[in-house]
Please model this.
Amino acid sequence: MNKCRLSVSTIVLCGLFLPVFLFGEEGGGLKFAAPPLGYPEYSNEKTEKHNRLTLSYLRYDSEDFNLYGSSLNMHTRLFNGNRGSFSLKYGAFFVTGQERDSLWTWDASAGAWVSEGDTDLTVGGVSFQPQLEWQALNYQKTSGWGFRLIPFISLDTEFQFFNQEMEENPYYSLLLGSSPGVQALIRIPGNLTFSPFFQLIYMHVFSFDDGTKHYNSILLNYGFDIIWKNYSLSGIIQPLLNGKSSFTISIGIGF
Model:
């Protein structure tokens, strides 16, 4: 049964991830992600934990932005079973920093626009993501060691509000998309779990600033969870263009 479920999940994941290798590009867009899963146990028992509250430090260093801040996210399981769950993820973030090379003046002698430097920028936002998780493989030993494979997919909605030094009025963006991924859970004796994951973020971005602009973007996320009893430590890296990257460090508690 496990072999059959693993084969099916492999086919599904290949179908979900194939577009990024054919049409996608690392980087593009501004997206802050929380750890994808809540807690690694799936059971019909009502005693299982159904919530995970995560506080994160955010650092976004790209060709266009240099931002840092924090976020607060909740992961709530609405339906839980032996083979997976249906959850809601929701939260808010705030970052501040600079938009690079965003102040330009006209140089008449050169006959061209010349960058005068960066401008201050603050960005805040809220997100809402229903998510489906499926326990494709569950291998447990009586000694306490174990391995689980969890494919998941979420539908993403995020509002972002921008306040820039040179803009008279704030502007905002709406992000719509989906985030398929897979997470492995390696159970270690002593109530410790090490859990690496990989996630794609497909986005359609609507930017409302002096008119409406929209574009598509595909981002990559990979990272890990270290879970001990009710507590977790997580790290996420998002590779961007030109060797830049975004990273998130999170601490969480389950209840």
Notes: Residues 2-22 form the longest helix (21 residues).
